[in-house]
Amino acid sequence: DIGTERYTFNFTIRDSPTYFINVQSWGREEYIRSLSESFRVGDCVTIENPLVQSKEAEREEKFNPVTPSCYKLLLSENHSVVRTSSCYETDTRLLSLLHLPVKDPQDYYSLGDIVANGQSLNGRILNVLAAVMSVSQ
């Protein structure tokens, strides 16, 4: 609808050490807020009825992890569902994937590197590997 606000929520899922794909969702604030609060990093999810789309690599991979797929999943507020599995239903093979980064270990900058070389990195887009302590609005 023209003139209405739309919100977005993006995340990456994986089901093997080699294969992972970006997921993009658009919709009303209530839908996006509910979706983003429905699971956490490390949860196992089932995604029903996503739309498979070709990704625009130059545009999309600037702010999303580079994936081995030339596709992305698009979630629709009216047609798609994300279901979280209970810890008892989780396939133990998936648990080993929790600590695998989606980037080559040589493709990251440490915070120390950024502080030390900040002047020469000014204006560049970088990959940073860090632990997140908390997230809030």
From TrEMBL:
The gene is Meiob. The keyword Amino-acid biosynthesis does not apply. This is MEIOB protein. InterPro entries: MEIOB (IPR052469), OB_MEIOB_N (IPR056880). PANTHER family: CELL DIVISION CONTROL PROTEIN 24 OB DOMAIN-CONTAINING PROTEIN-RELATED (PTHR21166:SF2). GO terms for biological process: resolution of meiotic recombination intermediates. Residues 2-103 form the MEIOB-like N-terminal domain. One of its GO terms (molecular function) is single-stranded DNA binding. It comes from the Eukaryota. Keywords: DNA-binding.
